[in-house]
Amino acid sequence: MNQKVQYVRCGGDVDGQGAFVSPTILDNVDNKMRVAQEEIFGPVLCVIPFKDEAQAIEIANDSKYGLGAALWSSNINRVHRVAKRLQAGSVWVNNYNEGDMTVPFGGFKMSGNGRDKSLHAIEKFTETKTTWIRLHP
User: Fold this and answer.
1) Cα–chain center distance at 45
2) Which one-letter DSSP state was computed for residue 89?
3) DSSP 122
4) Are 50 and 71 in contact (CB under 8 A)?
5) Which InterPro entries does this one have (predicted)?
6) Beta strand ranges found along the chain (DSSP E)
7) CATH number given to 6-125
8) C-beta of residue 78 within 8 angstroms of C-beta of residue 53
9) Which residue from 29, 111, 116, 137 has the fewest beta carbons nearer than 10 Å?
10) Are strands 24-27 and 44-46 parallel, antiparallel or unpaired?
């Protein structure tokens, strides 16, 4: 990993068998680093500095993945504006990873495999067909 990265918080060793990752915060991460570009399905937070809202959106969208994104803000206008521009299948605001089985779930780009859950998921298993019949030739 690039030597510019600073380990702000490492949770220490995890007891037990298996492959576990301790909660870790990485500061001063460059968005081109592997840890920022690949989906890390574990308790790892990469802190990437940005100058303004536009750059934050650019950094967030600069990935081949787009499963989910999270925003923390009390400005509802900003939330709507940013959420609309994020290339992610789910956007959480002031929370993360909450869900409901009746709401479609899936990612954009190379994340996910269509839309799971809800009636939208049924579309993956159906093919529609139109048949035109003239009854009185």
Assistant:
1) 13
2) S
3) G
4) no
5) Ald_DH/histidinol_DH, Ald_DH_C, Ald_DH_N, Aldehyde_DH_dom
6) 6-10, 24-27, 44-46, 65-66, 68-71, 90-93, 108-109
7) 3.40.309.10
8) yes
9) 137
10) parallel
Cβ burial of 132 (10 Å; 0-12, 13-18, 19+) is exposed
Q: How far is CA 24 from the centre of its chain?
A: 18
**58 Cβ partners below 8 Å, 6+ apart?**
none
Per-residue pLDDT tens digits of the chain, which is 137 residues long: 545 777 677 766 677 787 777 888 999 899 999 999 987 878 888 999 999 999 999 999 999 988 889 999 999 999 999 999 999 988 999 998 787 766 766 767 666 666 666 666 677 677 776 777 778 87
Q: Which two tokens stand for residue 119?
A: 């009636």
> What are 86's two structure tokens?
């994020």
For the chain, domain boundaries: 6-125
